[in-house]
Design a protein that fits this description.
Length: 109
């Protein structure tokens, strides 16, 4: 009963036309996005972000597994371990870029 009174007060203050104008704005924007293929861009961006998150999680898992053995073998201090962990993704990026160039040049043709 209290909700009905509050809704009635809101309708009296704003008026029905104001509420309809506010509702039409998002509908027009949605229609415009469909016309401009905005939704396809949103879906593609979401897919790329999801795949990137999965790959980052996998990368972190590999690094944490290798860090213990590498730190023990090389007798690294805590600061050196931190540097190793932070530089491993950079090394992976660099290696993938170099490998791409090498495969383009010497790969199967």
């Amino acid at each position: 009963e209290d909700k009905r009174v509050l809704m009635k007060e809101v309708e009296e203050e704003d008026g029905d036309e104001d509420m309809m104008e506010n509702l039409e704005g998002p509908r027009q924007l949605g229609a415009q996005c469909q016309d401009n293929n905005c939704l396809n861009i949103v879906y593609l961006s979401s897919l790329v972000a999801a795949i990137g998150g999965l790959l980052f999680g996998y990368d972190v898992g590999v690094i944490s597994g290798a860090k213990v053995q590498v730190a023990h073998e090389m007798k690294l201090s805590c600061g050196q371990e931190e540097a190793l962990v932070s530089l491993m993704p950079f090394g992976a990026l660099t290696a993938s870029l170099v490998a791409a160039k090498l495969l383009d040049r010497f790969g199967r043709k």
